[in-house]
Amino acid sequence: MLKKRLDSLDALRGFDMFWIIGGEAFIHTWASYSNWPPAVWMSSQLHHSDWNGLTFYDCIFPLFIFMAGFSMPLSFESQIQKLRELADPNPQSKILGHLLKRTVILIILGVVVNGFFKFQGYENTRIASVLARIALACLGAGILVLYTSVRTQIVAFTGILLGYFFVVRFYPVPEFGVYNFTKEGNVTAYFDRLFLPGKLHRKVYDPEGILSTIPAICNALMGAFTARFLLKNPLNLTTNRLLGALVLIGLGLVALAELWGLFFPINKIVWTSSFVLITGGISVLLFAFFYWFVDILGFKSVVKPFIWIGTNSITIYLAVHNIINFESTAHYFLDGILQNATVDAQNFGIATGVLFLQLAGLYFLYRNKLFLKI
Fold this sequence. Notes:
Elements: H1 7-34, H2 37-45, H3 60-85, H4 91-113, H5 130-147, H6 150-170, E1 172-173, E2 177-178, H7 187-195, H8 216-232, H9 239-260, H10 273-296, H11 304-310, H12 313-320, H13 326-338, H14 343-367
Antiparallel strand pairs: 1-2
Helix pairs in contact: 1-2, 1-3, 1-10, 1-11, 1-12, 1-14, 3-5, 3-8, 3-10, 4-5, 5-8, 6-8, 8-10, 9-10, 13-14
């Protein structure tokens, strides 16, 4: 039986968020400053694929959705039990109401992150966002987890991935025809231009568009499946065998994705079914490692900075987007110290200072048990 809150999950969430808030800039500037081959390679992985293919940076977003899905079975069971103790006749409805409220809040916050406070007219306002995709994917997966059996969830998971494949592969897009797998000619871009209100992030498509959000539900479901596998341990495996099974599942998903990718390319922008499977497999492997390292071996202290980030991930995400300018603050404190350094050294110093400021603030929040929850 899993405890209610896994330190490994908080650490993994923090590890994931680390790259968004300042880790990316730290690695890029370190690579430029040092020219050390491992740093240069890491820097090359911290860019999104232009079209087909996969980099480490492409895995960050689906990993967030996976972790949100992971939390669902544990959270829902706990909430249902508490509501039943209060003689609530329909606890699922209360949880669904909270899911809907959370979805609306995250969509609104996503618009704010997109720059709503710099409002320049509806036609220049982007509605789609990372937060909106997380919210909608979790809403879809949450309804399935809340109201259906695991068997039905597996059927839905399979149906979504196959159905999405057939739509992208065979839907005739006006002026482009069937399966014009380009940024402008694919069916998801067509749906964005046709139905998505406001501004499209890439003019002819939006990477967080309408149709491509549907398969993201499966990333959340894979998180839920992983949590149930650990929680229920249906094969009654020892801890080591349970971890081994997770590794095999993760590798199997990656292999299946590579095979499917021969016919339906791994593509983050379209969020193809093969992309779902490979990022799901990588998410399972990363979780297995963090679970082993943090919760089983007990090396929580080693990953404490990630836990500070992970327990306040939404706080720091909002802070770095249009709320706090950490870079300007770092310049204020460090410009005098770095004035005689090379440009590359200055950039590296500022990136390091940004991370220090962020971690200092997150440590303060963690130590004082101040957490923003939605």
